[in-house]
Every structure is written in C-alpha cells, then in structure tokens.
Amino acid sequence: MSKELIDAMVNMREQQAIDLAKRMLDEGENPLKVLELCRKALEIVGKQFETGRYFLPELILSGEMLKKISKMAKPFMRQDVKENAVALGKVVIGSVKGDIHDIGKDIVVFLLDVNGFEVHDLGVDVSEQKFIEAINQVQPEVVGMSALLTTVFESLKRTIEAINETGLRDKVKIMIGGGAVDEKVKEYSGADAYGPDAVAAVKLAKAWAQMQT
Amino acid sequence: MNERWITPSSDADEKQESQFETWISGENVPFVSVEAKEAYKARATLIKDSIQLTKAPRRIPICPSAGFFPIQYAGVSMYDAMYDYDVLTQAWITYCKDFTPDAYNAPTTIVPGRVLDILDFKLCRWPGHGVSKQLEYQYVEKAYMQAEEYQDLIDDPTGFFMNVYLPRIFGSLKSLDKIPLLPPVNEIVCVPPALIPFGTEDVQTAFNHLAIAGEETMRWLTAVRRLNGTIMGKGYPAFSGGFTKAPFDVIGDTLRGTKEVLMDMYRHPDELIEACERITPFMIKSGVASCKAAGHIMPFIPLHKGADGFMSDEQFRTFYWPTLRKVIIGLVNEGLVPQLFAEGGYNQRLEVICDVPKGKVVWWFDLTDMSRAKETVGRVACIAGNVPLSLLCTGSPGDVKAYCKNLVEVAGRDGGFIFSTGAGMQGSKAENVRTMIDFSMDYGIYKSGDQ
Questions:
Q1: A101 and A123 both lie in a single domain
Q2: Is B263's CB within 8 Å of A56's CB?
C-alpha cells in the first residue's frame, strides 16, 4: 500500500490518496510512517517541478493532500511523538512593509510547512521592527521576505539594513522573492539569495538549515 | 449552435483598416495646432505599421507603461491622486510634458477613491483605507466564489454576479441579493412580484449608493476626458483604450482565487472549463464596448494565471488558451487589436500563442526572452516590451541604456515591435525613465525605413 499511496499523491489522485491513507491508519499502520510516505511523495513532486513536468497546481494540490492526511493521522499519534516532532529548521517570513499581498508568500509558507519547517508567518505589511523582534524571539536560521510591488524594493532594503544594524545579520540567512524580484533586486537589497518560485525557497531554506546544524 | 470565434471573419481586415483610419484621424481630438494633429497622426501610424507587420515604420514607437510613476514623479501621494482629480490630471500632464513618450496611458487605472468608499469595495485596500496614503491600491486575495457555486455561475452569469458576487464585493450593495431573476418577468402577472424588492428600503438604499457613486464617477470621468483631450491635443495618442480579460483570469483572479483555481483544474475541471466558456461572450462584448467608449482600437488585456510556472503547457492549452483565443478572435472580428499583456514569463507559451491571425494583435511581454519571442510570436504578431522594472527601480542609467540597446537590436529588428516596459513603471528612478525613452527614441530609427 505504501507504493500505492506515493503513486496516488504523485499522480494527483487526491481521493485515492486520502482513502489509502485512511485505510492504512485504520489498519494500525504507524502514523509517522504514513506521513513519511507523504513527504516522499512531495519530494518527488518537488523534483518534477524542478524538471518542468509539474507546476504550481501540483505543488499546491499535493501539499493539500499532505495537510488532510496529517489531520487524519494526528489522533493516531502518541502525545509524546506529537510534542517531540523536530522541525528541519525555523523560518521567519512576511511581506515587507507597504505590501499587503500574501498569495506568493502563503504558497512559500505552505510548502515550507509541509516540508517540515517550523514557519513563523508574520503576515503582510510587516515593519522592520516586527521582523527584528521575531528574529530575536524565534532565532530562525532563515528569514524570508516577500515583495510583489516594485514600490516596496526600498522597504526591502531598509528592513535588511535594520537587521544589519541590530547585529543579527550574521545569525540568519535572508531570502527574498515575489513579482519583479530578481538577482538585481537581491544585490540592491542586500539579501543572501532570491528565489524565483516556492520550490527554490524550500531548497534555499533546506541548504541553509543544514549549514547551521 | 455553430461554435463561434474559431476563425476570423472574412471582413476582419477591412474592419481593422477602417478602425485604424478613424483612430489615426483623431477626429474628435481638440488639437492645439495643425502641427500637433500631424504629429498625432505620425505617432499613431508608427503604432499601426508596427502592428500590421506590412512594413517597418519610420522608427520604433516608444510606449512605456506609465503605471503609477507619474504620481510619484509629481511628488504627490496615491491618496491625493485618487481623491483629487486636479492633482491626478496635473501629474499626468507633467509626466507627458517632461518625458514625451510616443503614446501615453490614460490614468483610468487610478480609480476614484470616493467611489470605493461609497460602495465599501472589498476586493482591494486603497490609500487611506487599509494601506498608507503613499502606496497604491492592492488586491486582497481570497475565494470570493466557492467551488459549489460553479453551476450557479454557469447557469446564469449575470444573475450570479447581481445576486451573489456583487453583494459580496460591495458592502453597500448587499441587498442586491434581493433583485429578482429577469427571464421570469415575461407576463402581466409577473410584474408585481418582480417589483416588490424595489419597494423595500434596503434595496432603495443600495440604488441610492449606486446613484451617488455614479455621480462621483462622472466627475472623475469629466476630469480624465479633459486630460485626454489636452494630451492628445498636443499630438500624443493613447497607447490603449478599453479593457477586457482572459476568461480563466476572470474566474481565477477575483472569483476563485489563485490557489483554488489551480486546484480546480484537478478537482472541478469540467465546471472550470464550462465557466470560462460562459464568461467568454461577456469578455468580448465588454472589450468592444469599452473600446467604443474610449474611442480606441486597442483593448488592454492583462494576462495573469497563464504565465510560466502557474500551469503546464498542456493545462494552458486545455484551460487557459481556448477561451482567451475566442476573446481574441471576437475582438479581431470587430476590427480591434487586442493588446495582450503577458505578465511574468511566457517562455513556455511561445509556441501555442502564435496561433493568432497575422498582424492583428500585440503581444506585450514582461519577463519573456525577447529574442525567442521575436523568432516565434514575432512572425505573426507585433511584440512589445520589456524593460524590466527591477532594472528601472534599482539600476543605473548606464545599465538601462545597455539593456535598451540590446532590446532595440533584437526585438526591434525589421519592425513589428513596440518599445515598452515590462510592467507599470511605479518605483522607477526618474533618470532611468528619461534615459530609457530618450535613448531608445534615437536608437530605434530604421535606417531603411521610409522617411
């Protein structure tokens, strides 16, 4: 059934994937194993995205399947397992001050989350101060900043400068993304990297989190 | 019923020619001088020649997308521009005077703020109403239509908008949900029941809001029309006029929302396709009507969810392109020139979007490889674009010049090219905008073109 579950998820057969996961859980399969299979499926979907076979719809739909299955699996988990789940790393993320768009950021948050990151989503229109407070509090390996509007490139730059001034800059890696953000904006803002899509964000975060452990 | 809008009608050429003739003549434009009229005609002709692909124009027309740049350049706030129509029009006059692009964009995207206030508009936040007074309005992403409502939309798009969607997106128009269905009003006995809602206080209040918002819109429109007369009167045509959208984007942008519409391709594929088909005639008709109202031939069509990354080529061909193509053919059949603004990258779409009648549309690119676009789409359509906003916002005039030089050489080769930006220019440095326009106007002269 393990292979079938991965297959169903990878091939976007949502209902079949849900039914299979439910059957496995009902029959006493270890919920952590079921979730592990889901993650494997998501990894394959991510690879298909990188090779240009899959696109946003598949990323989102497979993530949704994982979310549904996680919800189903929760009641089957022992309390200590739930509490001791170790995240891959911590990410503080938000749309920078002046920008209230959230769809791109939300997709990144969603993918980071289903890929095992502890994500602290500060929402939209996030001030420099709020970013700094969150970095102090959460102590993330990675900070993500989203900017769709071309008028908030300045805001992006100021936020990173503010982080520099507090001395927190060496403790985090900063990735930026959104609409017209590219290498040039990365240079301008002083970020460590930019990601053209959500999978790139997950890849960056994984690489950086690994560096720090 | 025969399937409509598959091939262009036999009189499409003739209609386009006649539409161009009217537009280029500037018949209702209050020209300040004979020279201004001639300059207007010459600039409009540059655009026409580029579109029709029959000959290279004298030089490449320079038509950047102003976006909200004129407001920032004038040193006023977005709030002032949306609430004070004199401020708005003055900003546009200054921009056109200082930068002199060949064609300008009428400031119809700077919608009147008071109208949004009166109607309690929910789709966006705007300056002073959820975002700072300095910033532009921004869309609030949400599913404004649920998946189980597809059938209602398909059965009766107008009824669905009237009774369900508009009450959701306008707080002041909640009671439009009481407006009766119209086809049942067809017999004497049907008259009183149909009128009952109009006698209730809340429906009357909603109509009152509409009347006040309509009056405010007329004040704004009067100012914008006067402005258009002033700029065109000096010899500068508008780059576009009228507006419509791809049916998939109508569903995806502000009805279902991005995440939902992308998943609908798996969860509700048939309903999604049928809804796009049902919306198609509306998008053609509104494109035609809005062009007529603007006295223009080029409806602006911003394309969103079909960009690279949003879906596969197969999904694009299945869900996005068929109905967009129908909209294109429907507009072409009226002699109009769809101005297809492909936001984001369209590198994966270049093959399929070549399937348009030759010399009848403008494909305007943002992050697309212009060299590949020229080789493919450029054979059948005028291409436009694509100075990146990241460059205009963060680069130096030297960087801008280098980019423009290459763009003119690659995309401008042998005509069929309108020089523009990859998106609205808000956030750009003024010196970069000036360099871009001045340099490209000089550099884009066709040596062999008819002088």
A1: yes
A2: no
Please name the residues in contact with B115: beta carbons below 8 A apart, sequence gap of 6 or more: B121, B213, B216, B217, B220
SS3 B229: helix
Residue B451 pLDDT more than 50? no
- The span from the CA of B136 to the CA of B68, in Å, is 8
pLDDT confidence band for B1 (50 / 70 / 90) = low
B123 touches chain A (CB under 8 A): no
Q: A25 and A100 share a domain?
A: no
* CA-based nearest distance A80→chain B, Å: 34
User: Any idea which of A77-86, B61-70, B250-259, B266-275 has the lowest mean pLDDT?
Assistant: A77-86
CB A58 within 8 A of CB B262: no
Q: What is the CA radius of gyration of chain B?
A: 22
Contacts of residue A149 in chain B, CB cutoff 8 Å? Answer: 135-136, 138, 426-427
SS3 B418: strand
Cβ-defined contact of A55 to B309 (cutoff 8 Å): yes
Q: What is the pLDDT of residue B450?
A: 43
Picking from B219, B235, B251, the residue at the C-terminal end of a domain is B235
The percent of residues above 90 in pLDDT, for chain A, comes to 77
Q: Provide the number of structural domains found in chain A.
A: 2
Residue B419: both structure tokens together: 């020089």
- Checking if the pLDDT of A126 tops 80, the result is yes
Q: Which of B138, B390, B423 sits opposite A184 (nearest CB)?
A: B390
Q: Do A61 and B139 touch (CB under 8 A)?
A: no
What is the model's pLDDT at position B153?
A: 98
Chain B stretch 380-399, residues whose beta carbon is closer than 8 A to a beta carbon of chain A: 388-391, 393-395
Domain count, chain B: 2
B141/A14 Cβ within 8 A:
no
